[in-house]
Amino acid sequence: MRLLPGTPAEAADMIRAARADKRTLDIEGGGTRAGLGRPRRGDDTLSTRALSGVTLYEPAELVVRALAGTPLAEVEAALAEKKQILPFEPMDHRAIYASAGAPTIGAVAACNLAGPRRVRVGGARDSLIGVRFVNGAGELVTSGGRVMKNVTGLDLVKLSCGAHGTLGLLTEVTFKLLPAPRAAGTLVLDGLADARAIEAMSAALGSPFEVSGAAHDPARKLTALRVEHAPESIAYRLDALAKALKGHGPARRLDEAEAESLWRGMRDGQPLAAGAGPLWRLSVAPSRAAALIEGLAAQGFAQAWLYDWGGGLIWLSAPASADGARAIHAGAAQAGGHACLVRADDAARAQVDVFQPLAGALAGLTRRVKASMDPDFILNPGRMYADI
Amino acid sequence: MSEILFPEPDAGVLARREQILSDLAALLPAECLIASEDERRAFETDALTAYRRLPLAVALPQDTAQVSALLRYCSQAGVKVVPRGAGTSLSGGAIPQEDALVIGVSKMNRILDVNLADRTIRVQAGVTNLAVSEAVAPDGFFYAPDPSSQLACTIAGNIGMNSGGAHCLKYGVTTNNVLGAKLVLMNGEVVELGGASFDAPGLDLLGVLVGSEGQLGIVTEAVLRLVRAAEGARPVLFGFDSSEAAGACVAAIIGAGIVPVAMEFMDRPAIRICEAFAKAGYPLDVEAMLIIEVEGSEAEMDAELARIVEIARAHDVRVVKESRSAMETALIWKGRKSAFGATGRVADYICMDGTVPTGQLPYVLKRTAEIVASYGLGVANVFHAGDGNMHPLIMYDVNDPASQAKAEAAGMDILRLCVDAGGCLTGEHGVGVEKRDLMRHQFSQADLEQQMRVRAAFDPQWLLNPAKVFPLDGRVSG
Predict the structure, then answer these.
(1) For residue range A335-377, what is the model confidence (pLDDT) as tens digits?
(2) Final residue before a domain boundary, out of B85, B104, B123
(3) Measured between CB atoms, does B446 come within 8 Å of chain A?
(4) Which helix (H) or strand (E) holds A47?
(5) What is the ipTM of this complex?
(6) SS3 readout for B107-118
(7) Which residue in B has a C-alpha nearest to residue A117's C-alpha?
(8) What is the C-alpha to C-alpha distance for residues A295 and B138, in angstroms, rounded to an integer?
(9) pTM for this model (two decimals)
(10) Considering CB atoms only, which of A141, A336, A358 is closest to B197?
């Protein structure tokens, strides 16, 4: 059965009814990221598609609020009119999953999305300041608000962000915004091996020039560094950056169109996204990324890869086998982070850990938190972990 | 006299005090346990000094294992625990209870690892906020959240309260600058949340921990994000003939696509108090002043300031005064950061901390003045204008119970005003005991019960800092 609530109150009624009938629910927004997480196994599907529209936009206060099913493109178009942006460059999963449809603002929050600018401004979680959601008991709950400084009560905003709909159905989300950069420029270093490229990116990110993108494509041996600021500053900052990095070889400036396409591609995991094989996404301490990849490649668990976030994010083409998953999760943990199997067929995603397995007491705590919001475990069952 | 209620102490725990003390003594070196009344006095309050409660005992553990042993014992013995950083909470977040053990993190104050390549630092949670920045300052880095109490306050307390500061307009608050935490749960279990990567695996439990006011566990270590300092920074003073003009100027600057590092507001009483203390060169003949700080190279700062000055002129700015030296810059910030201390020299005060949408600032300032005047008291306003985080300092006489009651009533009226204007009760000081009973003004019962159920997932017996945040009646545990 497919449920299509037209209002948050109606969504609450439907979730209460599902709980009473002991039916589980898969939550769906635009449907462009259905392959993210463990395979769906809900009895029914609840879509946010009819919960749509920007409900508050105050450009002078840098804040926007929208119902969860609002197409992201609609929100971004409204912001563009006032030269403002969602700061964190939310990625688009359509290339990875070869999916169609319109990504929604609710999924941006539910999946805690972020693109290259994360190194400078944080991810969706850092800009999300308010949520309304329906918990697994069918109650409408509000947390946070529309002001950017707010420590009133427990922060269920952060908790909802990146929970992949397992704690509640987001019905409305409020983000703080930034003015769109007035200008941007991208510097490229050529020919660097992984470890050297990461050193260069660390040096750039540790410079005073507010680098807002630092990515490396080993296939092209291309290291890209982005600066965003006032138009009159770009040439100065790129020059100063090139000087600071002169130990890493000569730098050249990309033209604007090429740079824009590079960052857009990087945001969406390109060119690896374009393939069809299993794809992993690793979040690690940047200084440990190159050694991690070297180790995985030696075991045959790394076919191709890309670095974003100065090495802190790795897109990795590697097997979704049980051995591969074990090695990748263990390696990511050792490198100070974690791994997620972003693309693989349903059978593979049912058999291996898609998200990083939780260590020790964290598993029990996670389960208790889930139960505190969705007592009968009816929302997105098994999406993140088999028993949650 | 006191408006704020504290729960009746558990008589059973008080009767067992000697036994509990001897049990605790087995878990800690002798110098880490404080039992005498004299020494406990040092812990009976925090920066909400109008209220004080003598704790059952105070433990100052040296490491995570000791914290774990203490919490496991307290959990089994049914003893409440009040976590404590440096005791600088303005909302009473660290005020003890007679039947509770205070666990302070002050002995865990080492910096464990600095990693400039990854721009992270791992610290024990009792390290002070300023010590973190000082450790990396020679390399040109800093830790961004900079609460006024940064000389004394601890990272553990910052995490508990999600502390902000003057520069969070650009750099975010604590929750945006903490990557990982080692958390000891009430049952003694130790969990690692987040780590050295940009985002944490699984549910964002780190996100719910930050700002949880010591109700979810005790943080013993943290991984913090470091930021490279800009090439230069320059604060500029803008004086206006009215608060409304200053407020409108703030909105216009943001509306023009400029987000300065800091935009701080002071009204006439605050300017006078701070200038008398810091001799920072603040203009004394204006009704309102903004401190706006810009960053970058000299040329970049000149260009951004030119745009800001143009906007300020359109809002009838009367005084524009740029810092011309590092010493002037330091004085300008010293004046602002000592606002609370300087006010404390001329009067007793309580500091409210509501946030409002910036468009509502002129209205809320006007109503705040009216409310405080209606109680026959005075107010100085000094706050973070860029994010609408108000800090009215309501001045009263602590030796006059009637005056204190009036100040508290005025404060509560102002907080209700902030919520009604679309904002919230607290932007960075926390709910503590002070605003606990106003929570129902901002949240529905369903909202609060959901928060309480999440809280109970961490501490099912409600032993951790239980008199804080949530109204004392109607609590839920599962």
Answers:
(1) 999 999 999 999 999 999 999 999 889 999 999 999 999 999 9
(2) B104
(3) yes
(4) strand A44-47
(5) 0.97
(6) CCCCEEEEECCC
(7) B198
(8) 35
(9) 0.97
(10) A336
